[in-house]
Design goal:
3 helices, 4 strands, 32% strand, Double Stranded RNA Binding Domain, 106 residues
Length: 106
């Protein structure tokens, strides 16, 4: 699994990057065919700073995208990972229940 972390308009600390990598490793038990993961961190400079995490996950024949915002990057990332776990489980069941291409041709 190739992980790329991009932070917009700021420099992410190594501790945050390590936390992101650890959380993304847990997704491998839901789908072992993950090709790459792009994580984009950004925030808005309003009165209350809102942190946004966008995750684009590539599996064969599909790209799954999730975006979450909250007061902290860790909280946004945790919410995004929870959403991805549900989507990966759904994708896996669809993949397993779909009839094989060779069976349709007979």
């Amino acid at each position: 699994m190739n992980i790329q972390i991009t932070s917009r308009k700021f420099r992410a600390k190594n501790s945050l990057k390590d936390f992101i990598r650890e959380e993304l490793k847990t997704l491998e038990k839901y789908n072992d065919q993950i090709i790459s993961v792009d994580v984009i961190l950004s925030f808005t400079l309003l009165k209350d700073s809102i942190k946004t995490v966008e995750i684009n996950l590539a599996v064969p024949r599909k790209i799954i995208s999730v975006t979450t915002s909250s007061e902290e990057f860790e909280k946004s990332l945790t919410l995004s990972i929870a959403k991805l776990k549900k989507l990966l489980a759904k994708h896996k069941t669809k993949r397993l229940t779909r009839p094989k291409e060779n069976e349709n041709k007979r």
